Structure prediction request, 427 residues.
Amino acid sequence: MAKNKKKKIGLTTVILLSLVAGALVGACMHYFVPAGYVRDTVIVGGIFYVFGQGFIRLMQMLVVPLVFCSLVCGSSAIGDTKTLGKVGVKTIVFYLFTTAIAISVALSLATLTNPGRGLDIDNITKGEATVAESTSLADTLLNIIPKNPIQGLAEGNMLQIILFAMIVGIILAKLGEKADIVAGFFAQFNDVMMEMTSIVMKVAPIGVFSLIAKTFCEIGFDAFIPMLKYMGTVFGGLFVQCCVVYMLLLLLFTRLNPLKFLKKFFPVMVFAFSTATSNATIPLSIETLTDKIGVSKKISSFTIPLGATINMDGTAIMQGVAVVFAAQAYGIALSPADYLTVIATATLASIGTAGVPGVGLITLSMVFASVGLPVEAIALIMGIDRILDMTRTAVNITGDAVCTTIVAHQDGSLDRDIFNSDTPVSE
Prediction:
């Protein structure tokens, strides 16, 4: 029996194989299957689209009830509002700090590689840019408070859900035995949602295959060639942020083995890459941090949803490189003050940004406007952004996990025995 268990291929391996197979099938279809009704409408726009989007919708279906119940249980478990406040402040400061570092890394790399210099704009596949509406800081803060919590839940407004759930959890902790029935309901419903997550994850390989195959069939590799320098700079920035900045912070604050952390969290990164949505990875992130890293669910259920909403380091890197790229492509000189403006604007723009595919391009228009760059420049990078979006989502959720682990360590809510074990708790 033991031998059979060893031979059994895990879900993580199957998902990774599905990702590779999807990329190969999509690329082969792009180059070797002639465009037409069967390829474009039936297979890509039909089968791949339905299975891919269907899987993302299944994950999105889980997010709001799971996050709400997890946060209620988490904040009631913490109980003490003073402790909860400390955890919240530490988390937000960490997220903003790493976002500012991410943009600085991106701007530094871009000034070295000069991604937009000598570019032939006419050879680039262009898209249609969407301009984001600028929201004042006052309105951003007020939007955290739900006028109608049911509407906030229905619309999936994560900041409003987080605030309302925290208030409910704190009150449950304060009432104690008087609210045992309500607290028990949330705890049991949270277990139901975690079980539902496990069931949905069983169809993940099909969803991942469909999403990747559709992407590569539509894009191919031709669109990448004129933009290789830009893509290389973004990938370089993402690598530095994920494997250098995060891992140094993890080592500095927790003394955990960074390589072991990456190995344990890698399945979530693969999943985030394939779906390109931070929100869809919330259930899997919380489960992995609990079962493999040893983080208490009372911490992860608070910090992970918050991170999916306000921590967009990968997006910030793309925006930093895009600013230098656009400025060089259009021959616009940027001053040191402009670079500081970009760092501040991109950091603030990440707060309240939805964790859904492609949102980074929309907020990029606000960053461009802050330093007087033409919004039309966004259209230059839209053709190849899907691949970059997938990669930066993986970096975003890794940053959330590192922050969560550090905060849990400082709160005394990190079980090192689980982290050092090669067998997950659930097994």
